[in-house]
Amino acid sequence: MKITLNFSALSQTRWYQYLSRFLIGGATTVLAGLIGKKFGPTIGGLFLAFPAIFPAGATLIESHEKEKKGRTGDHRTQRGRKAAALDAAGASMGAIGLLSFAVLLWKIVETLPLWLSLPAATLTWFAVSFAVWKAWQSFF
Amino acid sequence: MLTELVIRFVVGGIAVSAFAILGDILKPKSFAGLFGAAPSIALATLVLTISKEGRAYAAIELRSMILGALAFFVYAVLAARCLLSGKWSASAVTASALLIWCGCALGLWFALLR
């Protein structure tokens, strides 16, 4: 399946949906820091992989699918949920990339400079996620 | 302290929003979904953490993040299965499954790192 960019999707999202994602992201980042301060880095570190944006994103996808013209009732609802399920399947593959991000950065954060270790780990996240997605594509 | 919290809030909000917008504009949906598990919070906080607490502290956080990512995988697989059944809405599934993430992450921490 070909990867494409659809910029018109940006106009489907309302201003308060952008705002809510910014607020959720900001609040989760603050919360992760506060939990780390209160309970120590071993508990705080768990929250570096908290699914901060995924619930809002999946809900948004479901509502966009339901709002599309030419569909009615149950069909729209089911289509919205199936689209959200595909998003969740993608997130599960992204989580494997997230795991590789954490493992690599854990190993190199104390030895390599940050300007090198952070981009390297981020590239690894994307490369692993993409490879898993491609493999999934060829199987299903 | 307050300044640090404000910086964390703004940087975290921008990082999460940026990955979310990428997820919005990309097709197909399964590929866009990869960005739902982007390391946005880690990227937003690690620079601040390292500058304030040092690299050793960040390494301890990252070791725990491995368990958080495993919990994320369980969470997302479960959410995909429930949504595919078509019985529940996305908001109900993704919000209630956060408890699964918490249980899984804390359970792994208890078993492996405590």
Compose a concise summary of this entry:
The complex is a heterodimer of chains A (140) and B (114). Chain A is an all-alpha fold and 140 residues long.
Structural key phrases:
heterodimer, A: 140 residues, mainly alpha, 6 helices, B: 114 residues, 83% helix
Summarize the SSE layout with pairings.
The complex is a heterodimer of chains A (140) and B (114).
Chain A: E1 4-5, H1 9-12, H2 15-39, H3 41-44, H4 54-67, H5 73-108, H6 114-139
Chain B: H1 2-25, E1 26-27, H2 29-32, H3 40-53, H4 55-85, H5 90-96, H6 98-112
Helix pairs in contact in B: 1-3, 3-4, 4-6
Strand content of chain A: under 5%
**Count of all domains of chain A:** 1
Class from helix and strand fractions of chain B: mainly alpha
Q: Note the main sheet of chain B.
A: none
Average pLDDT for all residues of chain A: 89
Q: How do the helices and strands follow one another from N- to C-terminus of chain A?
A: EHHHHHH
What's the alpha carbon Rg of chain B, rounded to whole Å? 16 Å
Task: Walk me through the structure.
Chain A is an all-alpha fold and about 140 residues long. Chain A is built from 6 helices and 1 strand. Chain A has one domain (about 10-140). In chain A, about 45% of the residues are buried. Helix content of chain B is about 85%, strand content about 0%. Classes of the chains: A mainly alpha (about 140), B mainly alpha (about 110). At the A-B interface, strand 1, helix 2, helix 3, helix 4 and helix 5 of A face helix 1, strand 1, helix 2, helix 3 and helix 4 of B.
